[in-house]
Each structure stands twice: as C-alpha cells, then as structure tokens.
Amino acid sequence: MQVNFLENNRSGFYLLHGGLEYSVRTRRNDRTYWRSVDRQCPATVVTVTNILVTFGRPHNHDGDFTGLEADSFVSGAKNRCWDEEAPISIHDEEFTSTAECGL
Q1: Is the distance from CB of 21 to CB of 12 less than 8 angstroms?
Q2: Nearest 10 degrees: CA dihedral of 95, 62, 32, 8?
C-alpha cells in the first residue's frame, strides 16, 4: 500500500493515506499503531517498518486531498530550506513540481 509521511510540529510524523491523516498512537518494536488525527473518528491502521499492513476501523469523514498536498508542499519546502543553501531555487522547484501535479 502506498503511504506517505509528513513531519508534524512536534518532531514526529503523520501517516498520509487516501487523503486522510493518522498520528502515532503507540509503537512496539518495529510495529506502529496509528489513529485518525480527527479525535471523533475511530479509524486506525498498523504499519510494520513503515509498510501498511492492517486497516482497523474505517473513517467517519471524508479526506482532504488538497489540504494534505498543501501541507506536504510546505513541509518539503521547509526541509529543503534547512538542508540547502539556495532558497529561491528551492521555492521555484517545489512550486513547479506542485503545478505539474495539477494543484
């Protein structure tokens, strides 16, 4: 299953799948248990070494593909600005890659 990870403000990560976000609930060895970031939603998934292996309960709300793409863009640009020395070209490259995706 295709999943992506997005760095959050607490030096952790969100799991992104199907336009929906999950945050870490528990970790045991190489297994991570995730829950929906919407606390009213019962959805859960499990990953083993960052590979999605189990779906728990389903979401009770729709995903936000556009919002997640925007968050992913901002996170990627921030990380590149910390790691690279040419912020103007970073902005242009990130913006171009997003525009090519149709956003």
Answers
A1: no
A2: 40
* Per-residue DSSP letter, 58: P
Q: What is the pLDDT of residue 13?
A: 85
Question: Residue 13: which of 31, 25, 29 has the closest Cα?
Answer: 25
The answer for residues whose C-beta is within 8 angstroms of residue 55's C-beta and 6 or more apart is: 44, 45
Closest Cα to residue 101, out of 62, 63, 73?
73
Render pLDDT for 28-80 as a digit per residue (tens, 0 to 9): 999 999 988 888 888 889 999 888 887 887 777 776 555 656 666 666 666 67
Specify whether the CB–CB gap between 25 and 31 falls below 8 A.
Answer: no
DSSP 69: H
Kindly state the helix (H) or strand (E) to which residue 47 belongs, with its residue range.
Answer: strand 44-48
